[in-house]
Amino acid sequence: MARFNVNIALAGNPNSGLTTLYNQMTGGLQHQGVFSTPGNKTKEGPVKGHNGANVIELPGMYSLSEYTVDDMANRQILLEGKPDVIINIVDATNFERNLYLTLQLMELEIPMVLALNMMDEVYSNDIEIDMNKLSEILTIPVLPISASKNRGIHDLIHYAIEAADKHQVPTNIDFCKGHVHTAIHSISHIIEEPAREIGLPVRFCATKIVEGDKPVIRQLSLDDGDSAIIRDIIKDMEHHMDTDREAAMADMRYAFVEDVCKEVVTKEITTTIQHDRAIKIDKILTNRIFAIPIFLCIMVFIFWLTFGSLGSLLSDWLSVGVDWVIKQIGNGLLSAGASTEVYSLVINGVCAGVGSVISFLPIIAVLFFCLSILEDSGYMPRVAFVMDKLLEKIGLSGRSLVPMLIGFGCSVPAIMATRSLPSKRDRHLTITLIPFMSCSAKLPLYAMITAAFFPTNGTLVMAGLYITGILVSIICALIFNKTLFQGDPVPFVMVLPPYRIPAAKSVALRVWENVKGFIKKAFTVIFVATIVIWFLQSFSPGLTMVSDPSHSMLAAIGKFVSPVFEPLGFGDWRAATALITGLSAKEAVVSTMAVLTKATSGLTLAQMLSQMFTPLSAYCFLTFCLLYMPCVATLATVRREMGGWKYAFSTVLFQTGVAWIVAFIIYHIGSLFV
Amino acid sequence: MKLSELKKGKKAIIETVGGKGALRRRLLDLGLTPNTEVRVRKVAPFGDPIEIFLRGYELSIRKDEAAVVTVREVN
């Protein structure tokens, strides 16, 4: 029995190598723990080779201010979760900004170890950093590591566990001078007791009060007398400093950090090889003229890889395997003398359900492979920089563009990709808009209808649909900005990290995490939905199995709801029934249409369709399909990413409502001309 | 002058950081404090945001947001 339950929190700036270090420490393993609740991006896993040691990776942060949802979650974990030790990972090539966070973490009264990362880059640039001096100034152990090269990790873990065991809390260092110093000390005395009572670190509270941090002031609930004294102290400080409290604190911290750098970095150079390289690459990738064409080429390539070549190759292999398994099961059932009901349940219900979950896997795997490379290489922030202006107009930032474009392929990975967005508001709005991007599963339907009704100008109709989707999403975004998503959008101030070669291990792990996450969270929902649809399709309202689907329960429901679509020009019950089956997957609309119209060849299907639709109502039907409720896999993903069924249900209502209104408008305006 | 008005390639020293709430907090946390040297590295293809260089790293910031920072141009 070695040490038991040491909780190590991993904290640092974004792009300082947090995830790489986490992966090296855990081997990529992850478990659900007390710190990682669904909805936050915190990861938690056992430390390899150290029994009972648990590491918690906090999403990257620049300070302990409450700025984004991640910041709030981080602060809560550090203050209330009380990890036993913090490993503060610091990008040694970007000392100043990283140490600014270090100063704040040191105030938490939690044992701490500093991991100086990217040391390989430091050495290759001939920069010299005096580790002993740094450790002396900060009063905490400082360890050089290179997370991507797996160097120094072993020692780091050792020192971290030791610091936790001995409960080595960093000393409060006086980084402030003059009036700020006086203010912090005076306030510390006043709040010491109330802070201790609610278990908050005194020094942290004092500096946060000087900064004017509202959550801390609220938590301490000081009496009027104390509040008045504090107000006077601050006013006095601001008066003498000729600046305000927020700026004064930030200035003091940075001034201290600058001094530390001067003392510790013994041989400094103005720029690094990596930085020069980034500037050279940026000359092309964010070039005024080339930036957008290059981005479009990359996106086209990713789509081709995902939906064209590699993805479809993997899908084909998978479906060969799946078909073989289904055939074996079918044969087994037949030879065991299973009844028609059981045979149909297993083959058309269970196997179809499993099959539809599996069909998403190659797409998710290939897409996240590409996205991980874009993200880890540092290209993604450049895309956001280049394209930001376009999305700013609809109240989003450049960060939302790539997830929205992925929506043209498949909403499921697109919604999963919004995880990289910094604010909950942006995320929610982006997720709401993604399903309006016409996904590739709708193409067979477009092809079927255009072949039947618009054989000569099919391209125009298709383009019209895609544009309608984009226009509707823009209009909805504008309306939402004025209503549901009011308030200041989170400012778009974004660090552009240097370009780095993505580590194969973290790319592979990211792909695996996404695939696994999708299977785990979406499987049940998709599975159940497919079986429900099968049941409704195969049984009559009298619960006997039907061979003719037009006598099924689903058809009965279709007949019941079809009047709703009368004002849109397609009141035929078969259209309504096909729309309902679209819930399981959008491709199902086509197959249901084919089955219900009893068409056997393309020609007869076209003839049957022309009895159900006029060209105008066919176009309205397509528009409705474009916009109405997404498939169950998307709904399951919305629920998972937004953290609740209510979001999934509101998506259903909202999109179906929008689809109805838009189709209604098109039908009635169209009727005036046709 | 405002940081948003600084021309591409020009250097300046930050004088004050205005704005309020989350934006101001973020700017200060990222090291845009008085007397810090900044340089405008680039302007995005659509004319906004701009890319600035300070404290050894690059930052993308919208012109609207850069307008809250006043600077003094230097050579």
From TrEMBL, chain A:
Source species: Aminicella lysinilytica
Membrane topology designation: Multi-pass membrane protein
UniProt keyword annotations, A-Z: Cell membrane, GTP-binding, Ion transport, Iron, Iron transport, Magnesium, Membrane, Metal-binding, Nucleotide-binding, Transmembrane, Transmembrane helix, Transport
Subcellular location: Cell membrane
Cellular component terms (Gene Ontology): plasma membrane
Broad class of where this protein is predominantly found: membrane
Protein name as annotated: Ferrous iron transport protein B
Keyword Nucleus among UniProt keywords: no
Pfam assignment, any one: FeoB_N
Binding site for Mg(2+): N23, T26, G27
General function of this protein: Probable transporter of a GTP-driven Fe(2+) uptake system.
Family to which this protein belongs: Belongs to the TRAFAC class TrmE-Era-EngA-EngB-Septin-like GTPase superfamily. FeoB GTPase (TC 9.A.8) family.
Ranges in a coiled coil: none
Entry keyword Transmembrane: yes
One MF term in the entry's GO annotations: ferrous iron transmembrane transporter activity
InterPro entries, A to Z: Fe2_transport_prot-B, Fe2_transport_prot_B_C, FeoB_Cyto, FeoB_GTPase, G_FEOB_dom, Gate_dom, P-loop_NTPase
Domain FeoB-type G: 5-166
Bilayer-spanning residue ranges: 289-307, 345-374, 394-417, 460-480, 518-536, 616-635, 647-669
Chain sites annotated for binding GTP: G12, N13, P14, N15, S16, G17, L18, T19, N117, M118, M119, D120
Automatic annotation (TrEMBL), chain B:
UniProt keyword annotation of Ion transport present: no
Domain of life: Bacteria
UniProt KW Transcription regulation keyword: no
Classification via SUPFAM superfamilies: C-terminal domain of transcriptional repressors (SSF50037)
Gene Ontology MF terms in the entry: transition metal ion binding
Keyword line: Iron
Listed Pfam families: FeoA
Domain Ferrous iron transporter FeoA-like: 1-73
Stored PANTHER family: FE(2+) TRANSPORT PROTEIN A
Protein name: Ferrous iron transport protein A
Annotated organism of origin: Aminicella lysinilytica
